[in-house]
């Protein structure tokens, strides 16, 4: 692989790029041995606890996620999960000869671990875009010979809403992989840009459960086959949307849903399916763990998502619980938005929630405001506050004065 880079090394150096490699083999001129250079910068021997993980479950890195409750938290990602992500594209049916188009943020698990690490795992080529452009997408695919596209549902909707172009015909894309693709967009996407395979998945950054729609059933995020649930166990339990709590029977245990009934997706926490929690105190993970689910003393991970399993075992996403909503492919923490607005002296109360918008995926932010007497609404000050303290996807699109 490294030898294949030799013809391009002068151009890469001219761009100011420095290349490192690790391994016992001899590297071509112009590629630095990473371990040798790192060792030269250290005065003494590197302590063992820094040079190598003591356990495969040790924390490898942190990824911030808003999850379904509270403010964004730094989820602990183990070395094991990183290694598992190396096999993501192999599970999806991609191979070394594929060219994978990636325009997702690298601060998310989808872009970094599943995207970049997944490509490294199979030795594929990745076309890395700093920003997705629906108008440029098919031209990029033609130019680079793209065969696989990693998406979030919103990106596919952008593409089907684009006017027809010559570039969308004759492409080599055979597989699209991702999450959040609505059934109506799915059908339009395949009909217009096919033939190609859509592989819809479901998972959470800190979660211990994931599903793959390996059958191609439109609108499904996976299938609850007995074999899959034996290897990666999970359950759907009845949930009271009014109280925000699972429904329990007279013995205080949770109740599994029937086919076609929305239920809270939970997965047992054990050595086979661990949950590492978040950086900080254990109280940060308290809302993500359910105890005494099916028997006294058991512990389950609470995904915070409601799914439906039909009588054929197909799983479909239904809704999200908790105090977050999803917009532009991002999880928006209502607590974070409300705290940013509450700092304004003319606001007495702020309540933030998501509302559906026709023709758009997810929910847009609505901020219900109560003014502090005798103040009036200062839209300029509110705009400045929101622009300086919240990322674009988290800024409320609507205001409601109470």
Automatic annotation (TrEMBL):
Q: Which chemical reaction does it catalyze?
A: a very long-chain fatty acid + ATP + CoA = a very long-chain fatty acyl-CoA + AMP + diphosphate; tetracosanoate + ATP + CoA = tetracosanoyl-CoA + AMP + diphosphate
Q: Which UniProt keywords apply?
A: Fatty acid metabolism, Ligase, Lipid metabolism, Lipid transport, Transport
Which taxonomic lineage is given here?
A: Eukaryota, Metazoa, Chordata, Craniata, Vertebrata
Ligase is among the record's keywords: yes
PROSITE patterns xrefs: AMP_BINDING (PS00455)
Identify the species of origin: Delphinus capensis (Long-beaked common dolphin)
Which top EC class is given?
A: ligase
Task: Tell me what this protein is called.
Answer: long-chain-fatty-acid--CoA ligase
The keyword Transport is annotated on this UniProt entry: yes
């Amino acid at each position: 692989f490294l030898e294949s880079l030799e013809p391009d090394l002068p151009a890469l150096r001219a761009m100011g790029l420095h290349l490192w490699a690790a391994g016992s083999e001899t590297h071509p001129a112009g590629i630095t041995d990473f371990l040798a250079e790192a060792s030269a910068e250290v005065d003494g021997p590197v302590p063992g606890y820094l040079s190598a993980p003591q356990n495969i479950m040790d924390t490898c890195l942190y990824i911030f996620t808003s999850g379904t409750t509270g403010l964004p938290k730094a989820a602990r990602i183990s070395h094991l999960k990183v290694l598992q992500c190396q096999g993501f594209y192999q599970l999806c049916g991609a191979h070394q000869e594929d060219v994978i188009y990636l325009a997702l943020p690298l601060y998310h698990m989808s872009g970094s671990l599943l995207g970049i690490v997944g490509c490294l795992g199979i030795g594929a080529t990745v076309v890395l875009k700093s920003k997705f452009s629906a108008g440029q997408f098919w031209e990029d695919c033609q130019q680079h010979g793209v065969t696989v596209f990693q998406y979030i549902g919103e990106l596919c909707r952008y593409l089907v809403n684009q006017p027809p172009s010559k570039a969308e015909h004759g492409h080599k894309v055979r597989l699209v992989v991702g999450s959040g693709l609505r059934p109506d967009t799915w059908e339009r996407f395949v009909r217009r840009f096919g033939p190609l395979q859509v592989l819809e998945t479901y998972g959470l950054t800190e979660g211990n459960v994931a599903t793959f729609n390996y059958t191609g059933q439109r609108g499904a995020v996976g299938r609850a086959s007995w074999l899959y649930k034996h290897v990666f166990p999970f359950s759907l339990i009845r949930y009271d949307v009014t109280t925000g709590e699972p429904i329990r029977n007279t013995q205080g245990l949770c109740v599994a849903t029937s086919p076609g009934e929305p239920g809270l997706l939970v997965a047992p926490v054990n050595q086979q399916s661990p949950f590492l929690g978040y950086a900080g105190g254990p109280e940060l993970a308290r809302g993500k763990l359910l105890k005494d689910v099916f028997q006294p003393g058991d512990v389950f991970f609470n995904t915070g998502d409601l799914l439906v399993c039909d009588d054929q075992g197909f799983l479909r996403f239904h809704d999200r619980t908790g105090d977050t909503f999803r917009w532009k492919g991002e999880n928006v923490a209502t607590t974070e938005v409300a705290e940013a607005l509450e700092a304004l002296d003319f606001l007495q109360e702020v309540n933030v929630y998501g509302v559906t918008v026709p023709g758009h995926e997810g929910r847009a932010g609505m901020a219900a405001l109560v003014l502090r007497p005798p103040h009036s609404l200062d839209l300029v000050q509110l705009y400045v506050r929101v622009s300086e303290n919240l990322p674009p996807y988290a800024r409320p699109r609507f205001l409601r004065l109470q």
